[in-house]
Design a protein that fits this description.
Length: 286
Amino acid sequence: MRKEALFYEKNGETARCGLCPRMCAIHEGQTGFCSTRSNSGGILFAENYGRISSIALDPIEKKPLKRFFPGSAILSAGSYGCNMACAFCQNFSISQMKPRTDFLPPEKLLEAALSIPENLGVAFTYNEPFTSVEYILDVASLIRKHGLKTVLVTNGMIMEKPLSALLPLVDAMNIDLKAFSCEFYQRHGGSLETVKKTIEICAKSVHVEITTLIVPGENDGEKEMDELSAWLASVPSASGGIPLHITRFFPHFKMQDKQPTPVKTIFSLVERARQRLRYVYAGNVN
Ligand code: SF4
């Protein structure tokens, strides 16, 4: 099924996508940076609408969300594509490549979510969910009517207009704060300022937790963690303090030459962050 994208403007035969700060100008027959939106006859299509590459029932702690219905399980679905290009991507086979997908209409995903006893809802995860905004809006409004929750696991790279459309239908988010350096974000195709803004906006109205994946030599400095945790502590939050997950990197994608992050580095950064934040968790250390 081909679905027209939301959040774009036509300029003659060119479509300018307004979903994320890349603002791709997409010409006839071309696809945007994230590989999910294409221009056909001046119309921008969300090619990934309902295209599911992976689906599984996961513990909510795996998202990771530690302080949102702990102990529950959530049906987790991923599509393909991403609007960043992290050299260390831990899910590159679906974010940076086009995997095999199956079409799952919103009603079918609802049916699957309802068929699992005690399932919390649907988490959009594995690749960047903001590139599936049209599908998430359709699914989230359906599942809310049935008392289920919508969770997003995201890099935070989205413009304010689409974010405002999504937020009333979202219950919880895990947002990556990949580093606290503009240069780092530039190197990996993102924008620190955009991600900070997304976190500030979301934390006001939904449950938000943050993940920082520590890559040796890239973002493992103590000063950087001091700055990151001090800023996070200053962000007003609807749920009384934003939890931070500091997690281990394993060699993937274009960073096969690096060693996994030493466990002692993770625990040392966790200790530093705990000087400012109430809830700090070490991830992937077992
Ligand atoms: S969502 Fe995709 S097509 Fe749209 S601006 Fe971002 S990278 Fe470009």
